[in-house]
Amino acid sequence: MSFMQYASRQRGITLIEVLIALLIFSIGLMGVAGLLVMSARSVHTAYLRTQVTFLAQSMADRMSANVIGVWKGYYNGSYPSSGAQSCERGCTPQQLAEHDKALWGSQLATFLPPATKAKISCSAAGVAYAPTLDQIASRPPYGGSCEMTITWTERGLTVDSPDADDQSLQTFAWEFQP
């Protein structure tokens, strides 16, 4: 068998090998693209959950700075609320609570998806005594408990979902003492 006969039988084999290699490579790239999409969704979910935790702690800190407002129930209600109260020249505990509520409501609207809802409910149930106004003015520790609930929507994380805009409802519930 001469070299010419062997070379004529090998024609086109290299082209088929290249096409198969290209097919395998493109399947690998599609897998990497899927991982990147899933990674981006996971990062966004982690971002939203971090923001919710940060905002919840921020409001709890504000409430602990205005214990009189917490005792009187000024922080109870649904958020976001409207109407900013300016406290540049000092505030009563109720005005400070209104200021905190408006500020927190605007932060919820800024950092979280548009359909975000929050609710705070403080209760002095189970407290051994109710403080008098003089005791409240001296800022006693708050003996009751508060419940904070933040609900928001985020994109679903399922790759095989046919609906690209799959939304899932998430809830952060926290019981704390300011």
From TrEMBL:
Family annotation (Pfam families): N_methyl
Record's keyword annotation contains Glycosyltransferase: no
Keywords: Membrane, Transmembrane, Transmembrane helix
Transmembrane is among the record's keywords: yes
PROSITE patterns hit by this protein: PROKAR_NTER_METHYL
Residues that span the membrane, as ranges: 12-38
InterPro entries: N_methyl_site, Pilus_4_PilV
Protein name (record): Type IV pilus modification protein PilV
